[in-house]
Amino acid sequence: MAMWNPWRGCKKCSEGCLHCYIHKGDAKRGVDTSIIEKTKDFAKPIERLKNGNYKMKSGTVYTCFSTDFLIEEADVWRKDCWHMIKERKDCTFLFLTKRIDRFIRCIPDDWGDGYENVVVCCAIEDQKNADYKLGIFSKLPIKHKCITAQPLIEAINIEQHLDGVELVVVGGESDTNARPLDYAWVLDVRDQCIRKNVSFEFRQCGSHFIKDGKKYKLQKKDLCSQARKAGIDFKSHRQF
After folding, report:
1. Same domain, 72 and 160
2. Within a 10 A sphere around the Cβ of 199, how many other Cβ atoms?
3. What is the pTM assigned to this prediction?
């Protein structure tokens, strides 16, 4: 799986951004995260080897995982990205966004009902954002939809918004001051997905994890492995 970050930098825009790992990492390096700028990898999907083949292999391409594909400051560059995405039909470009309300303003003229090789993941973290963002997301013309509730900071009901969604990912927050993740919230979202036949993945526990009313403090290195050990992922035949 390839990574493609055509630009870097981001700005906090929701409750889920409170302990953002990008901002923390930039702060340690003395980098101003609020400066959004193109990277040296901007044209990565269409760069070629001497033999004419693409440098980036076919497959899933995680796009803008250190920023937001729909961030306002990147409006002047996004059109070129859509051209590259359209050219690389052998790749599936997957991006997360906390700015789904900007989506219609950011798509290319020939988008139609969506590009087959684009997966859009709408990021939420609480009920307020779920109601607002998923209310928009559910009406958008997108071929492949995913919801990521990571970090999940409270119990949420999203069942009414799961039509047309192929995957829901849930996870906790990893930080010394992380907000707790209650396992009951995770299981409840899983039950909603199963009722709607939507794939579900428990991606990671939280640094502060609650199960059956008991509080646990987990090391960052164990968050994903502990989630896998739970064995609660659900696979629908409709997943991309």
Report:
1. no
2. 20
3. 0.94
